[in-house]
Amino acid sequence: MSDEEAKPSVAKSHGRLSISASLKPRDLMDETPRLKGAWVAKIVTLFPEAFPGTLGLSLTGKALAEGRWALETIDLRPFGEGKHRNVDDNPAGGGAGMVLRADVVAKALDAAAIGTPKDRARWPVVYMSPRGRPFDQATARRLAAADGMTLLCGRFEGVDERVLEAYGIEEISLGDFVLTGGEIAAQAMLDATVRLLPGVLGNAASTEEESFSSGLLEYPQYTRPTVWQGREIPAVLMSGHHGEIAKWRKAEAERLTRERRPDLWAKHEGGKR
């Protein structure tokens, strides 16, 4: 899929303020205005206090406060079984660690699904997993084009496979490494997605020239001072000749991609055929 194909075809109009209900107890939340039709992220997690985290800062945080997107956390613990609200059990067949129970996770997902479309294209349900499909910019665009999404953050040895199958959950990986839980990965994926929503970035053109937008890594960036520790800004960037600047940037993007990401370069070259 090309970047152009993955872009949202129609920008959503966010203009009217409304107050939306949350699955969180009212005394545990600060009710914030939400623009009508705003993109919503619902996070099923054992650690709701981990959110919004860095998503509450800078441009994503400003957009969150303005109601351009919304974040709801669903605490998995209250859906647990027994006196101690157990959410996990020993892995079938033996082995180290614990596995999140299908029945517990299912109840949390059912709560998160209230008021959301059943169509997975409009409302993806994602499980952050190292065995999932690699996350990339095209996936971020696809998620941003939806009405919102539900994110399941795993812990321990993972989640009972049966609930993943029963709910048609999409597994996505942030890379070939393992974290202690899905919360950090979820924040990274949400940041990449939310910044693509209308009105979040001050300059929409920023997303069109950055790394991966055209299948290439981004060209090098420079700013003042013109000379720093004997190193000068490339003369072409100071020339004012926009055509030559564009050519230089394209050449640099291609060079960096060839050198650092031969996999991306091969895909880029293959797309020309």
Please, could you describe this protein's structure?
- With 273 residues, this protein is an alpha/beta fold.
- It has 2 domains: 3-194, SPOUT methyltransferase, trefoil knot domain (Alpha/beta knot), CATH 3.40.1280; 214-270, Orthogonal Bundle (Trp Operon Repressor, Chain A).
- The chain is 30% helix and 16% strand.
- It has 9 helices and 11 strands.
- It has helices at 3-6, 58-65, 102-112, 137-145, 161-166, 183-194, 206-209, 242-260, 262-270, and strands at residues 17-18, 34-35, 39-45, 69-75, 88-89, 99-100, 125-134, 148-152, 170-173, 227-228, 231-232.
- The chain has a 5-stranded parallel beta sheet with strand order 4-3-8-7-9, sandwiched between helices. A two-stranded antiparallel ribbon has the order 1-2.
- α4 packs across α6 (183-194) and α8 packs across α9.
- The longest helix has 19 residues, at 242-260.
- Mean pLDDT is 88; it is low at 1-14 and 17-29.
